[in-house]
Design goal:
single chain, two-stranded antiparallel ribbon, 67% helix, 2% strand
Length: 213
């Protein structure tokens, strides 16, 4: 199959609005009108709870993992690392700009993690440890996500077995894109208005700030 067709399919896979469809089908809730209005795992958790958020996050991770892992195997031409990384990037863009819901979506964290999982599980493990450590200190999900994605190129650089610079370019571009998708969070952080990870007295779930997934 042509890599250009696969690139479009990778975008389409990433554009699957998991939280929107689950919210509407199982709960009768349009998540675009609840919580932060963002179609990611965090807003699903805030509004619908962990039982809804868990499958959303898993599918969102899978949207990044599947194109990177599988499309390279069915590509008509010899699969270069550039094409493989392009499939992951297309899936992330699809998640953030889904054509199903007016080119809106999540923040790209879960789908980006899925793409990276297919490329370097060790990098994902280290990044997850960084995310958990920063969240434990800051109690703010957006701070943990931004810190992790900004350190990701460094994590990849120091991992053993890195064969070329393509992964560094990919993680660098991913960092820039995710920072851009978090621009509203950054604005709230600068104003001291970003919510922390704490129990919300007005509802059953913890406050997470804007969506990170």
């Amino acid at each position: 199959m042509s890599p250009y067709v696969l690139l479009v399919l990778a975008y389409a896979a990433g554009a699957t609005p998991t939280s929107f469809w689950l919210g509407k089908a199982a709960y009768g809730v349009d998540l675009r009108t609840k919580g932060s209005g963002n179609l990611g795992g965090s807003n699903t958790f805030r509004v619908l709870g962990w039982r809804a958020a868990l499958p959303v996050v898993l599918v969102d991770v899978g949207k990044g993992w599947l194109p990177v892992w599988y499309f390279a195997q069915i590509q008509a031409e010899a699969s270069s690392s550039v094409w493989v990384l392009a499939y992951g990037g297309a899936a992330v863009v699809g998640h953030v700009f889904s054509f199903w819901v007016g080119f809106k979506g999540g923040k790209g964290i879960a789908t980006g993690a899925g793409a990276l999982l297919a490329l370097s599980p060790l990098a994902v493990g280290v990044a997850l440890a960084v995310w958990l450590a920063v969240l434990g200190v800051s109690r703010i999900v957006s701070v943990a996500s931004l810190t992790t994605v900004l350190t990701l190129p460094g994590i990849v650089y120091f991992l053993p077995g890195r064969e070329d610079s393509a992964m560094l370019w990919f993680t660098g571009a991913l960092a820039v894109f995710v920072v851009w998708s978090h621009r509203s969070n950054i604005g709230r952080l600068l104003r001291g208005e970003e919510s922390s990870f704490r129990r919300d007295s007005s509802g059953p779930g913890p406050e997470l700030g804007d969506d990170e997934a």
